[in-house]
Design goal:
This protein is mainly β. 8% of the residues lie in helices and 37% in strands. Strand 4 and strand 5 form a beta hairpin.
Length: 171
């Protein structure tokens, strides 16, 4: 069975353009390897490192520069390919950037353009909004920029007024 990252569809439309992000210093391009089916401009994926990756001679370019749980977007494709020594898959060299992450933040902190330190809520309630309050890949203390407001008016079971926003990691 071939282990590979999976595609994730993004519905956020208010993310700044690549040129704008680069000019503001908010875009971090990384070179990595992806399977041929992910080697399409705009494809998004979340990396899942496998135990055998740590022993691979390609790990420095393939998985070492990426953080597990963070969503990445393919921004350009290079012609060079490699064969994964463990799965046999053809892996293409690509440039990736962070993809937007949707999260719920307190309405008072939801200001587009603001750079904030991510602080997940400390609640112990089973809640349908928990995945958005604590999105996969973000950790307490991560710097993120709020790139847009998606929707307002969420109420959590703890009484907080929340806003759904689009975030871009800054680490």
């Amino acid at each position: 069975m071939e282990p590979k990252p999976y595609l994730v569809n993004s519905t956020v439309r208010d993310v700044p353009s690549r040129k704008k992000l680069q000019s503001e210093g908010r875009k971090k391009l990384q070179v990595t390897l992806v399977t041929e089916d992910l080697a399409k401009i705009g494809a998004t994926f979340i990396i899942k490192k496998k135990p055998y990756c740590s022993k691979c001679y390609l790990k420095k370019i393939c998985v070492d520069g990426l953080r597990e749980g963070i969503k990445y977007r393919v921004s350009s494709i290079r012609s060079k390919t490699h064969r994964c020594p463990f799965t046999g898959s053809i892996m293409r060299v690509v440039e990736v950037t962070y993809a937007p992450i949707q999260a719920l933040l307190p309405a008072s902190k939801a200001m587009p353009g603001a750079v904030i330190t991510f602080a997940p809520p400390s609640c112990n309630i089973k809640c349908p909004l928990k995945q958005l309050c604590i999105p996969e890949g973000l950790r307490k203390g991560d710097k993120v920029v709020i790139t847009g407001i998606i929707s307002k008016g969420f109420k959590c079971d703890n009484g907080l007024e929340l806003t759904l926003v689009s975030l871009l990691p800054q680490f």
